[in-house]
């Protein structure tokens, strides 16, 4: 009963919040994201539905190429080095314009190098009604020639000296951050699309030297004070199954070290913990926090949803596969491994833009 009162209080506070907080993207007049959240939920609550995340496998495209239009968001050099036959290169900021030109029978698929950026952009677009997909694991799943980054990221051992198996509490409930819109008086559907466009224009940076959107767990290993029970570093979220959080059912010793101290578990679908009546508001509202899943893509999809609502999540690149023992991580659903690349035929040469097609 006490928790229900807290949740109700947060929702009431959320609906009335006009706090003067600058969004990471906008610097224009501030409006609360309460209406935005309500709009998402009343429009089907895509992120928390079983349709999310919007993944397709390489085989889907290969077996029925006429059913899909492939939109590649990599840079010109990567696109020229190798692409799915028939793919066109599109800047993330131009995705909505490109999608608006397609007929309703076409299935658009966004492709990136490793799948992280595609999952982020596809989810951003899904939130405002575009039925678009992302290629799981990106070009790494199409051919082994593009799988080096994925394979090189696989962990060699579990940093057990820094991890534990404790079930840590989730963050306290907070009034969520506000979101800025170019026109705070526009209909909510227009504001939602403006928010999505702002996220697309900002992009999703996966460069290890730029931590605006992605990061590693390296600096979070010792970011917890056992004596005080307080974090000394960023809040860390394990997003997925309880088995991932505790390494349950795996061929390991009892209670194996499975996550950095202080890490909290948030369940994915079907019982998503990121509904407004679950733990969506149990997040830091005014500081960055880290999210990891099995392979990084579901965390990227979650980051798109949370950034749309004004939060500042950072995705751990390649997920738990970047730090768990290489023999354990591939046993989880959604993990990348050497058998994933299909070695399908690819094109290479000068890039082709969507406007040239």
Task: Explain what this protein looks like in three dimensions.
The structure is a single chain. With 357 residues, the protein is α/β, with parallel strands linked by helices. It has a domain at 156-186 and 204-331: 3-Layer(aba) Sandwich (Oxidized Rhodanese, domain 1), CATH 3.40.250. The protein has helices spanning 2-16, 34-42, 58-63, 76-81, 95-100, 116-126, 139-142, 148-152, 188-202, 242-246, 297-308; strands spanning 30-31, 55-56, 68-72, 88-89, 107-111, 133-135, 179-180, 214-215, 224-225, 230-231, 235-240, 264-267, 289-292, 313-316. The strands form 4 sheets. A 5-stranded parallel sheet has the order 2-6-5-3-4. It has a 5-stranded parallel sheet with strand order 8-14-13-11-12. Strands 1-7 form a two-stranded antiparallel ribbon. A hairpin with a 4-residue loop joins strand 9 and strand 10. The chain is globular and about 60 Å long. The model is unreliable at 1-31 and 352-357 (pLDDT under 50).
Helices and strands in order, then pairings?
Elements: H1 2-16, E1 30-31, H2 34-42, E2 55-56, H3 58-63, E3 68-72, H4 76-81, E4 88-89, H5 95-100, E5 107-111, H6 116-126, E6 133-135, H7 139-142, H8 148-152, E7 179-180, H9 188-202, E8 214-215, E9 224-225, E10 230-231, E11 235-240, H10 242-246, E12 264-267, E13 289-292, H11 297-308, E14 313-316
Parallel strand pairs: 2-6, 3-4, 3-5, 5-6, 8-14, 11-12, 11-13, 13-14
Antiparallel strand pairs: 1-7, 9-10
Helix pairs in contact: 6-11
């Amino acid at each position: 009963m006490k928790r229900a009162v807290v949740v109700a209080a947060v929702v009431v506070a959320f609906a009335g919040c006009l706090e003067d907080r600058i969004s990471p993207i906008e610097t224009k007049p501030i409006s609360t994201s309460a209406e935005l959240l309500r709009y998402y939920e009343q429009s089907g609550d895509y992120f928390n539905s079983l349709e999310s995340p919007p993944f397709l496998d390489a085989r889907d495209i290969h077996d029925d190429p006429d059913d899909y239009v492939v939109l590649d968001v990599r840079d010109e050099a990567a696109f020229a080095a190798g692409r799915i036959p028939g793919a066109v290169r599109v800047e993330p900021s131009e995705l909505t314009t490109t999608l608006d030109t397609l007929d309703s029978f076409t299935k658009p698929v966004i492709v990136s190098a490793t799948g992280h950026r595609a999952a982020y952009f596809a989810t951003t677009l899904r939130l405002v009604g575009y039925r678009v997909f992302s290629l799981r694991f990106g070009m790494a799943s199409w051919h082994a020639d593009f799988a080096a980054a994925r394979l090189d990221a696989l962990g060699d051992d579990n940093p057990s000296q820094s991890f534990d198996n404790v079930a840590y509490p989730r963050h306290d409930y907070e009034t969520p951050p506000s979101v800025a819109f170019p026109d705070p008086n526009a209909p909510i559907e227009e504001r939602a699309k403006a928010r999505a466009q702002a996220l697309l224009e900002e992009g999703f940076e996966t460069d290890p030297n730029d931590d605006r959107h992605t990061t590693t767990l390296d600096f979070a290993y010792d970011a917890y004070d056992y004596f005080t029970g307080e974090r000394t570093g960023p809040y860390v979220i394990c997003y997925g199954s309880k088995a991932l959080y505790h390494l349950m059912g795996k061929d390991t010793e009892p209670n194996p070290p499975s996550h950095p101290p202080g890490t909290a578990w948030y369940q994915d679908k079907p019982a998503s913990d990121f509904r407004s009546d679950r733990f969506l508001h149990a997040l830091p509202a005014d500081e960055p926090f880290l999210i990891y899943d099995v392979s990084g893509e579901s965390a990227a999809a979650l980051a798109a949803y949370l950034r749309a609502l004004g939060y500042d999540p950072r995705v751990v690149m390649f997920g738990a596969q970047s730090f768990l023992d290489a023999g354990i991580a591939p046993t989880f659903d959604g993990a990348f491994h050497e058998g994933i690349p299909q070695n399908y035929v690819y094109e290479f040469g000068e890039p082709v833009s969507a406007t040239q097609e």
